[in-house]
Amino acid sequence: MLRSDQILATVEMVSKENLDVRTVTMGINLLDCRRGTVTETCLAVEEKIAKYAENFVQKCNEVAQKYGIPVVNKRISVTPAAFVGAGFSSSDFVALAKSLDNAAENAGVDILGGFTAHVEKGMTETDRAFIDSIPEALAVTQRLCASINVGSSQKGINMDAVAIIGHTVKELAEQTSDSGGFGAAKFVVFCNQPGDNPFMAGAIHGVEEADVVLNVGVSGPGVIARSLEKTINRKGRSNLKLDDIAEEIKQITFRVTRCGELIGRQVSKELGVEFGVVDLSLAPTPKIGDSVGEILQILGVDDVGAPGSTAIVAMLNDAVKKGGIFASKAVGGLSGAFIPVMEDAVLADAVAKGALTIEKLEAMTCVCSVGLDMVPIPGDTDADTISAIIADEMAIGMVNTKTTAARLIPVPGKKAGEHVSFGGLFGASPIMEVRNVNKSSRFIAWGGRIPAPIHSFKN
Amino acid sequence: MTKQFIISVMSKDRPGIIADITGVILDLNGDLADLNQYVLGGYFSMILIAEFDENVTAEDILAGFSHINSETKIEATIKEMDVPLEIEKQNLPAETFIVTVQAENRKGLVQAIGLFFYKREINILDLETTRAGKHYTMIFQIDLTLIQSIQGLRVELQELGKHEQLDIVLQHNDIFRATHEIGTPVDSLPLA
To answer: Which structural domain range is residue B105 located in?
Structure first.
């Protein structure tokens, strides 16, 4: 038997510090589902998902029971829908969205991701029809998440798409205005979107992937926060330097990643499905004690957004990546720290206090693993300003060769400072102020592409 | 021909005790096989298996221990094995589980859990307990080969915990191996 202190430390991580497997996501390739008609294609999609995901939720639950580690979410990602439905009209894509939603419901998963297009260099007629379908598709479905990749470090940023997407986000929020614009919370705009990310709303099953794979998303900001508190109390603040803290984060991350991989591989084995990657990302939930913002406070800023916040996120993100890389031979996805405003109670609190602004959040996204995530903004923000915020965020990802994303929610009828709540994992927050609105239209009107940076030409 | 003895030794702990005990075995031309030792509360305890020539008796070994020149007496129990031990087959099952139980200290805690396991044909493979002030911690490594439903067992453990005011957690041993053994690739677990 292992040493008792090691056993007790791990037991504590699970029972008191919110260590869990945040998501097991089954990626399914749908490219072979194309048939002569839209109806037949939709049927084939539902059948293929049903075939592979039939026992998925049950097996996840069985493995979680056996090992004593909760698997919080079971999800499905699919091949970007714009590829599956090449040649579809906008209404055809809405039909496909409904089929994907049905398939998710039948499989017993709460979210299915992959209602997606990749348009970083140019848009086909299909891509335009697809983008056009997004507001309705997300308004008439429950479980579907959409995403679009509009930029990459290799191809640059498709500003024609970015210009359209500002309107898409607004329309999406307006079509779901009875739920505070919740539709926009199910839509993410990406630069460098990974094909193996298990976390929603941006999970897809990349076209480079095998037929079916299982990717695992492990979280655990609470584990890191509690562990740092214990170390600081035990050793004393004056006896620790930041490199000691970074090392501690790395060590904890190692253990958390290994736990996740163990569970993921067991589910893979049970289902006879290839194991893909483990993605260790600090993904907060609105639950108390499960916050990335809290880690920033422990590390020395009184409010998230205060000077120093970016430096702390940089250290945190790097330490998490290093721990994860050492723990597993199959690390992928986003693997880092998320700072989704509505999903993190401490971040939302910083917004309420006026400590955290969109500009500071954007700075922090330069060094975190994703981007402007779950950011509620005033409903009357103009589409071009939304496009311009997205363009800024995409530029950060493109130049830094990292993933960035924007999930902006223009909450219909609400102003900055008013409150919005989606409940559950999607959380709540005051609406963030967008400064300098209506000042970017001439920029967005250009269209075309922002060329890829010089360091992309490595051939 | 050789014969096997299983030997249990206890004494107050001191430097040199292992050299003294294994010296007795060497003096009798014995061959040491597996050995396990532990120090608890300043007392040393060892259990070992050794092979000796046919003419060596338990009394010879006991006499050897009694001749050790030390202020602390060595107490030993020696048993000759009727059937040779197959040491290689003493391995743990491929899958084991860890149950941690924490509670305010009181009499009968280990017995209560031991009885719970016994009634369900759960074999305890290893056990470690510690008392720290009023707090008592037990860590059981158990074999659940004969258990039909782990979910059912979890429910029963939860009821036991509620009834007896115990904080009980059941987890697969591989969780602890994955989180603490750097050299064990996760895709090799469970190790057959």
So the answer is: 97-188
Tell me, yes or no, whether B91 lies in a domain.
Answer: no
| CATH number of the structural domain spanning residue B168 | 3.30.70.260
Rounded distance, CA A420 to CA A429, Å?
Answer: 6
Name the one residue in this structure whose structure tokens are 């000796």: B52
- Domain shared by B73 and B125, yes or no: no
| ipTM tops 0.90 | no
Contact B176 A6 (CB under 8 A): yes
Minimum-distance CB partner of B186 among A10, A68, A262: A262
Q: Classify strands B2-12 and B43-53 as parallel, antiparallel or unpaired.
A: antiparallel
Please tell me what DSSP assigns to residue B187.
Answer: G
CA-CA distance, B140 to B123, in Å (whole number)? 10
Mean pLDDT of B140-150: 93
Among A1, A6, A65, select the one facing B150 at the smallest CB separation: A65
Residues of A in contact with B175 (CB under 8 A): 10, 67-69, 259, 262
Report yes or no on B182 lying in a domain. yes
Q: pLDDT-based confidence at A54, cuts 50/70/90? A: very high
Total count of domains within chain B: 2
pLDDT value of residue B77: 95
| Alpha helices (H) along A54-89 | 56-67, 81-84
Contact: B172, A258; criterion CB under 8 Å: no
* Residue of chain A whose alpha carbon sits nearest to that of B185: A328
What pLDDT is stored for residue A424 in this prediction? 87
Instruction: Give the amino acid at A15.
Output: S
Task: Give yes or no: residues B75 and B117 share one domain.
Answer: no
Q: Mean pLDDT in chain A?
A: 95
Return the number of other C-beta atoms located less than 10 Å from residue A455's C-beta: 10
Using the structure block, give the residue that is written with the tokens 């379908």.
A133
